[in-house]
Amino acid sequence: xxxxxxxxxxxxxxxxxxxxxxxxxxxxxxxxxxxxxxxxxxxxxxxxxxxxxxxxxxxxxxxxxxxxxxxxxxxxxxxxxxxxxxxxxxxxxxxxxxxxxxxxxxxxxxxxxxxxxxxxxxxxxxxxxxxxxxxxxxxxxxxxxxxxxxxxxxxxxxxxxxxxxxxxxxxxxxxxxxxxxxxx
Length: 184
Known about the structure:
With 184 residues, the chain is mostly helical. The chain contains 5 helices and 5 strands.
């Protein structure tokens, strides 16, 4: 079943049921991702293994594309500028973070809005790429790699730089707090 819309851009633009379902389900998907990330931006226990995982995963998000970008200087620059911007935002975010050392353990409360923005930048870009791939299905247009777009590399750099540096800073905080306890 196909629907036709009369628009200024295309007099007979076709929408299949699949396309309509995608248009309806995309906002639902964004809302679910947003609400899940929002739950992670509340007070939480500091667990060292999670912070190590964050450093490794987000570090890899920068290092893996970096190895492929030496022949495309704009994309390389976008990744590095994004990582630098993400680290800058992480420094700011750490100043807004509330750290707690209690008898039950170490806790921290990250700045919710900043963490949500950093996460949703990458989610929005990936959704755009997914919709672009879907729209170009069957048209003979080759699918681009993630590293082919400077904007994508900028988004990856911002997100990975922010969460990677933030995770490393949480590890440093835990070490300092543990040293202070051991010296007492």
